[in-house]
């Protein structure tokens, strides 16, 4: 199946707030093709000042609660970075990147369709690891 990336109109640097960033990450997540049994919460982690940009770090933590196990055995996190360039005009949109907790690969939402399998793989690996211990 071919997925069409639904592009988000990211806010401009001058209109950015920490909460607006979180809302836009939620908007992005709502475009992902993920089964409704997955639940998540998102949160702001911290702000990083660099020479050429300001970076805002967020996390979305995913799990599948059930009646038998309302607290999931394991969770999977997706980390987001919103970058505001100090060289671009403040009317330019922010840049958004994300990575999975188990990976160093950084993805751009407009270039890569998110896959539910990534979350499943993280959780399965964690459960297998704890069972070995």
From TrEMBL:
Any Pfam family from its record, for instance, is: AKAP28
InterPro entries named in the record? AKAP, AKAP_28
| Record-level Gene Ontology MF annotations | protein kinase A regulatory subunit binding
Gene Ontology CC terms, in alphabetical order:
cAMP-dependent protein kinase complex
Q: Per its UniProt entry, which superkingdom is the organism in? A: Eukaryota
Cross-referenced PANTHER family: A-KINASE ANCHOR PROTEIN 14 (PTHR35075:SF1)
The protein's name in its UniProt record: AKA14 protein
């Amino acid at each position: 199946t071919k997925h069409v990336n639904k592009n988000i109109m990211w806010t401009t640097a001058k209109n950015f707030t920490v909460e607006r960033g979180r809302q836009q990450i939620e908007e992005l997540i709502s475009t992902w093709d993920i089964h409704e049994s997955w639940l998540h919460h998102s949160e702001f982690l911290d702000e990083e000042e660099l020479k050429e940009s300001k970076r805002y770090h967020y996390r979305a933590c995913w799990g599948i609660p059930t009646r038998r196990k309302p607290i999931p055995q394991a969770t999977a996190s997706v980390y987001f970075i919103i970058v505001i360039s100090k060289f671009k005009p403040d009317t330019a949109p922010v840049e958004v990147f994300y990575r999975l907790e188990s990976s160093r690969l950084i993805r751009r939402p407009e270039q890569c369709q998110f896959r539910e399998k990534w979350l499943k793989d993280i959780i399965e690996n964690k459960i297998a690891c704890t069972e070995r211990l």
